[in-house]
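Friendly challenge for the regulars: who can give me the structure tokens for this chain first? No prize, just bragging rights.
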Amino acid sequence: MELIVAKFGGTSIGNGKRIRKAAQSVVNEFMKGKKVVVVVSAINKTTDDLVLITDESIGKEVTEKQLAEILSMGERTSIRVFSSVLESLGVKSEYIDPSHDLWPVITDNNYGKAKINFDKTEEKSKGLLDLLEQGIIPVICGFLGKSEDGQVTTLGRGGSDVTAFLLGHCLNADDVIIVTDVNGVMSTDPRKISDAEKLDYISVDEMRDLATHGAQILHPHALRFKDPEINAKIIGFEKGDLSDPGTAIVGPFEDSIGKSVSLHPEPISVVALVGEDLLNQIGLLAKMTTLVADANINIYGISAGQNSITLFLDKCDADEAYHLLHNLVIAEDSLSSISLGRDIAMLTMINPDFIETPGVITEITNPLKEQGINIVEISSSQTAIVLFINWEDGKVAYDLIKGVL
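First reply, four minutes later:
Bragging rights claimed.
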């Protein structure tokens, strides 16, 4: 019998009518003979209201333990309402919060951003199968955990998404369905570009990067629990239909891709163009990259400043690019000179946790400083950090950084 884990976000259960529509969509799948586990967030804006009330009444004196208990009331209320609506529609349901004997998500004692004990969670999750065999639909709090000594914890931002994929994995579900306020993943924000198109599918890696860069659809941490054998999709609540195709999330989360350090195997060369007021020269960068692209030369990095623009290229291509770009220097009044620099090593670090790790660049660069290794250039995004250093220091730097991460 097919098993579904359906997670409803706060907006999708934002009022009574939406809750009933969501519950009806669950009942519809149940009546098709499917087993359904429901995960719900706090009703729209409830958590924000609880945070505001706590801040105004207690302020900085609130403890993490107290705050976790207070914030848990949003999800605890949601599951009671949702489960009651399911029963009003003629099916058996049981709400499960951290006080319930069958509560599955076990964590450490970090109240505000708890770390999941996967083995114990997997063991506890099996208790939900007994309810499902009895034809009961369990409705479970998203976002929350319970420490081994019985204290309520929270999983941090996107915790309900984490709960859904985690339970999907532990229960060997066939489908994990994320119900939100959009009809799937769009080519861009439809509120900004009206002709944005819905994607039929998106890979786990693409979804993770999209979420990490600000798309408020799915939390990237949740994708760590995306099992390759489990179907997953994002759908909108408006249709009230869990069978809606939405956008499928395909592929597994690859930990080697999610967190890695790599040293480019060949030397990188530096080509630097010097001039005046370069940042205000419209189209200058496009002219540079077009020249290089037309010669089928790849660019690994660009550093732009007021008086210089530096390109990082494969050493084997650098001399050709150097001559091509020299012609541009002659033709452009804003450019005065070009140089071809020394051999450079390129180290790339990828980790979706970078965005939420204060001081991560310091952690990476301090070991290099202690060994007297100079950094020629550094670039970073929300999930990646790239270091360019002297070629002869590359292997030592690689070993140092791998030890840190």
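The mean pLDDT is 91. The two ends are 43 Å apart (CA to CA). Your move, everyone else.
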